[in-house]
Amino acid sequence: MKKRDFYGQMLLQEEDKRSCGDESTADLYRAVRNHFICFSGGKDLCLKDVTPALVEAFLKWLREKGLRVNTVNSYMSNLRAMYNRARRVCREKMGESPFAGIHLKREETRKRAVPVEVIKEIAALDLKSEPEKQLAIDLALFSFMACGIPFVDIVHLTGENLVENGTVLQYHRQKTGAFIQMEVTSGIQMLIDRYKNEERRYLFPVLSEDMTHEQYKACLATENRYLKEISVMLDLPETLTTYSFRHAWASEAYRLHVAIGVISQALGHTSEKTTRLYLQKFDVSEIAKANRQVSEAIGSCLRVG
């Protein structure tokens, strides 16, 4: 590989991210590289070939594909990051960036929260005859009742995440590393007990101990497929995803006038500097109080057994 081969440099950066365990960024880098190769017809591309005109043409090409605004923005910002790093590695003279004239305006994402009334309907569903779909629903309900915990963090929970005689659930977010603690409510405990198996490492039967990142993504896709089927079953106007329940918890907590600082801490947000100044004032009891306000009604709807 020639040192200034841009595609080769992009691949090296993807592999570097993957070797560091940053699978999400590696996947994004791979998507950007594949799109850029498709755009250029697979022709050889050196760093000096990445010109303002080429960048503008790629931006136009992405938009014409009908991709969402924020997806295009993500691809462009990551392409810029990869290009800048490649220039540093190759010790290219740092002149004006070919991205200097690119201005990306972020589009406000549509709210994905679903009303609590819908979540109550989901909690009351009896799908014992379809255990895989029942598991998908239970994982989504667990997300809501456990302060909007993301799917990736749910499926990685083990008995070690339950402390103080099982009364407190604590974990580090896979995405940010933020440390989160909460009370184990009756609803949370019911779902944990439903899938309890001493021979299995994880609390829920989703991951195997030797599962790869690609296999995890297949599990996530399966979860969202089942949630989509539930959306159709209940004739919902919006398709449910794993994010729906995280956003629903935050929205319901906000509606109940839970302090934004408490919501932020419960969700594991660490990028809001202003909010983080207040986070030290809240402990597990505050998070527990907030979660009881939001999720108790759902816990009472769960079927026993």
Automatic annotation (TrEMBL):
Entry keyword set: DNA integration, DNA recombination, DNA-binding
Protein's UniProt keywords contain Oxidoreductase: no
Keyword GTP-binding among UniProt keywords: no
Tyr recombinase domain mapped to chain residues: 109-292
Organism domain of life: Bacteria
Domain Core-binding (CB): 1-87
Any single Pfam family the record assigns to this protein: Phage_integrase
InterPro entries in the record: CB, DNA_brk_join_enz, Integrase-like_cat_sf, Integrase_catalytic, Integrase_recombinase_N, SAM-like_dom, Tyrosine_recombinase_XerCD
Family, similarity comment: Belongs to the 'phage' integrase family.
Name by which UniProt lists this protein: Integrase
UniProt source species: Parabacteroides faecis
